[in-house]
Design a protein that fits this description.
mainly alpha
């Protein structure tokens, strides 16, 4: 759906069609499935309630889509191609495009993209909704090579958190009696 501010998705699109959002919108065919998926990701990244693992996953997916749509924007491609074709009109780099679309800083986009690319989707899913879902833990996890090794690193950490939590509960209960 095309709206004055861009493409909207999900609940905002439903609200717009029903008239409850106060935004006038014209229904249009999405220009491309990847553009529509990227618009949904952008909307998700703009929301503050995404966790570090969710932001990393969404940013990595957005980068894959962006590079599929703009292969000339891949790291190193612009400088190599610019030597041969100085008049070419290249798409902006992924990080600057994402930062502009989502309102995040260039460095935040770079960190999220690196985390999302280096950490397996399986390991990211294990971390979501846990105390391990922090940038610091994700930065440690991204240094581990291989999906199985990353998952193997997450599982003991999760059981360690569960043990600490149960010890705290026991300690609190013993003080109450």
């Amino acid at each position: 759906m095309k709206v004055p501010g861009g493409v909207c998705a999900g609940n905002r699109a439903r609200d717009t069609l029903s008239g409850s959002s106060g935004v006038l919108a014209a229904v249009a065919e999405p220009p491309h499935e990847l553009h529509a998926e990227m618009a949904v990701i952008d909307e998700n990244l703009c929301r503050a309630e995404l966790s570090p693992a969710e932001r990393a996953s969404q940013t990595a997916r957005r980068k894959a889509i962006y590079e599929e749509l703009h292969p000339e924007a891949k790291a190193g491609a612009v400088s190599a191609n610019a030597r041969w074709n100085a008049d070419a009109n290249y798409a902006p780099a992924f990080t600057s495009n994402t930062a502009e679309s989502t309102g995040r800083s260039l460095r935040a986009v770079q960190l999220d993209a690196e985390r999302g690319e280096k950490i397996s989707e399986r390991a990211l899913r294990l971390v979501v909704n846990t105390a391990l879902n922090t940038g610091r833990f994700l930065d440690t996890l991204k240094k581990i090579k291989g999906e199985d090794a990353q998952v193997d690193a997450v599982q003991p950490a999760l059981s360690g958190i569960a043990k600490l939590a149960s010890m705290r509960v026991i300690r609190l209960l013993s003080h109450e009696t």
